[in-house]
């Protein structure tokens, strides 16, 4: 397995983090009203996160007396720019990039100076079992999440460790663990969900842009999340390319008060500091889960003033709907790591 590409350009952080990670500016903005910011006159404070601007006040992070610099989460004119080659989502935007080889060198983000409101991940396309493809796709069903399908600690290769008891031959024997019946086939098959495997899946870069949505929160929301329509193994009879997984490896700065909320279907696991923090696994309609870093700090081993890995693993395994939403007030300090 190739070594992962660490993509860690310096970004503008909260004032407490600038000394540790270095200061920078991005796309200076003129004074004026912004999506989450207001107007104001120049002050003596320090700008906040990601976008430096001129005079103005905002929801979070501006200077003590007013306005020397807007921010991605506050200040003036702070709606993030959407490049022309990105596709707007309901909130934010996305772009599928180059194919990723199982044996080639991991890709690098094409413009690090864009800042870490834009995060690089991997999307892998699969054929469903109804097409003679992967037996975990278009096979099972459920009405709510099935927890415990993966281990509570991320593997040394930074992939989830299979722990499912909900296989076809065993699910009926453990109704408590498998309330909605079988969810997976085998470890061998599951291990291909997040590993680029010739003949089984086709992997591509995927870039997400998070937009500010108020009170220091940034969001990516696609109520019809079909990023690889017309690509990979092609669309199904419903005119969408169902059957794919999404993987993100990034870092955030734990300042205190951080939260991370996911809404969508199907499987979703989020690891923080290599520990399972959100378990929405299994086949299910849209569900929502939130990680409150302060309340889980002991469980996750978090100390304020430190950057930690956040690693997300998602799967869309059954037709009818695909919703993918993230709301967070994180300060991302890594623009994405690709692990083929």
Please characterize this protein's 3D structure.
The structure is a single chain. The protein has 340 residues and is mainly beta. The protein contains three helices and 13 strands; from the N terminus they run H-E-E-E-H-E-E-E-E-E-E-E-E-H-E-E. The longest helix has 7 residues. It is globular. The N terminus is likely disordered.
Overview in brief:
This protein is 4% helix and 26% strand. It has 340 residues and is mainly β. The strands form two sheets. The protein has an eight-stranded antiparallel beta sheet with strand order 1-2-4-3-7-12-9-10, with no helix packed on it.
Topology:
Elements: H1 15-21, E1 87-88, E2 93-100, E3 118-126, H2 187-190, E4 201-209, E5 211-214, E6 217-222, E7 244-254, E8 259-264, E9 268-272, E10 275-279, E11 287-292, H3 297-300, E12 306-316, E13 324-328
Antiparallel strand pairs: 1-2, 2-4, 3-4, 3-7, 5-6, 6-13, 7-12, 8-11, 8-13, 9-10, 9-12
């Amino acid at each position: 397995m190739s070594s992962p590409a660490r993509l860690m350009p310096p970004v503008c952080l909260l004032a407490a983090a600038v000394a540790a990670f270095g200061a920078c500016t991005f796309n200076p903005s003129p004074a004026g009203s912004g999506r989450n910011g207001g107007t104001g006159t120049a002050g003596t404070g320090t700008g906040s996160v990601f976008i430096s601007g001129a005079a103005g006040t905002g929801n979070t992070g501006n200077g003590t007396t007013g306005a020397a610099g807007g921010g991605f989460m506050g200040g003036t004119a702070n709606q993030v720019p959407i490049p022309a080659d990105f596709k707007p989502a309901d909130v934010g935007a996305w772009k599928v990039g180059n194919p990723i080889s199982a044996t080639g060198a991991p890709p690098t983000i094409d413009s690090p100076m864009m800042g870490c409101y834009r995060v690089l991940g991997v999307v892998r396309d699969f054929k469903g079992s109804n097409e003679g493809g992967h037996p975990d796709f278009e096979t099972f069903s459920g009405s709510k999440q099935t927890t415990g399908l993966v281990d509570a600690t991320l593997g040394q290769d930074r992939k989830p460790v299979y722990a499912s008891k909900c296989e076809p031959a065993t699910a009926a024997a453990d109704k408590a663990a498998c309330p909605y019946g079988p969810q997976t086939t085998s470890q061998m098959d599951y291990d291909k969900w997040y590993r680029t495997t010739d003949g089984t899946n086709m992997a591509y870069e995927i870039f997400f842009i998070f937009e500010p949505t108020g009170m220091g929160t940034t969001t990516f929301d696609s109520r019809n999340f079909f990023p690889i329509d017309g690509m990979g193994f092609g669309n199904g009879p419903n005119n969408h390319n169902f059957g794919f997984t999404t993987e993100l490896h990034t870092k955030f700065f734990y300042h205190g008060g951080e939260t991370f909320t996911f809404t969508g279907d199907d499987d979703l696991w989020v690891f923080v500091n290599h520990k399972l923090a959100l378990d929405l696994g299994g086949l299910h309609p849209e569900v929502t889960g939130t990680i409150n870093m302060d309340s889980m700090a002991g469980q996750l081993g978090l100390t304020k003033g430190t950057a930690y890995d956040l690693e997300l693993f998602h799967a869309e395994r059954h037709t009818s709907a695909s919703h993918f939403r993230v709301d967070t007030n994180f300060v991302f300090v890594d623009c994405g790591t690709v692990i083929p």
